[in-house]
Amino acid sequence: MTTNFTHFNNEGNAIMVDVNDKDITDRIAIAKGSIKVNKDVFYAIKNNTAKKGDVLAVARIAGIMAAKKTSDIIPLCHPLFITKATVDFELDETNFLINAIVQTKVSGKTGVEMEALHAVSVALLTIYDMCKALDRSMEILNIHLVHKEGGKSGIYDRKA
Questions:
Q1: Does 18 qualify as catalytic in the annotation?
Q2: CB 29, CB 80: distance < 8 Å
Q3: Which of 7, 62, 93, 123 is the 20 to 30 A CA-CA neighbour of 52?
Q4: Is 80 exceeded by the pLDDT of residue 66?
Q5: Measured distance CA(68)–CA(5) in Å, rounded
Q6: Which residue is catalytic, options 18, 40, 92, 129?
Q7: Considering the entire predicted model, what is its pTM?
Q8: Helix residue spans in 94-149 (DSSP H)
Q9: pLDDT tens, position by position, 110-128
Q10: Which of these, 77, 72, 85, 88, lies nearest to 16 by C-alpha position?
Q11: Which residues are within 8 A (CB) of 33 and not within 5 positions of it... i.e. 6 or more apart?
Q12: Would strands 156-157 and 25-36 be described as parallel, antiparallel, or unpaired?
């Protein structure tokens, strides 16, 4: 398989990819990641008793803000006019995991995968920040793209 890295010019210098000739299409990305916490943190989050407030509400807003600001943080990432960004959480009481699931949408010339992945990362980091006084051993795990659609490459679904 030949790979052409499009973020470099012929001289090997970093460039922002020219998407001018690409078609505007509806694009969707879904990303997911987890944070493993101890029992006390899990129940403080679940029962909304953390001293810093509603951890998941703050993490949700942080994730949405991160999706909107991805191009400010990731070099060479195109600024996008995101039309949707959702951050949802699943609580896995058996494993003391909090899963963040982000969906981003745009109608544009380039995809929204980086925005979804960035939003997951920031949402999980926000949980860590708000709960670190209770547990500094929290682990952020398995941030990955679950699904993407739109554009020339079509649909991608992560295999289980």
A1: no
A2: no
A3: 93
A4: yes
A5: 25
A6: 129
A7: 0.90
A8: 113-131
A9: 889 999 999 999 999 999 9
A10: 77
A11: 99, 100, 120, 121, 124, 140, 141, 142, 143, 144
A12: unpaired
Give how far Cα 26 sits from Cα of 22, 61, 135, 157, Å.
12, 24, 41, 17
The greatest distance separating any two alpha carbons of the chain, rounded to the nearest whole angstrom, comes to 56
Is 25 in contact with 107 (CB distance < 8 Å)?
yes
Q: Which residue has the tokens 């003391």?
A: 96
Q: How is residue 120 written in tokens?
A: 């997951």
Residue at token pair 């952020």: 140
Tokens standing for residue 60:
């949700």
Tell me how far CA of residue 49 lies from CA of 43, 44, 93, 134, in angstroms.
Answer: 8, 5, 16, 12
Tokens of 131: 């709960």
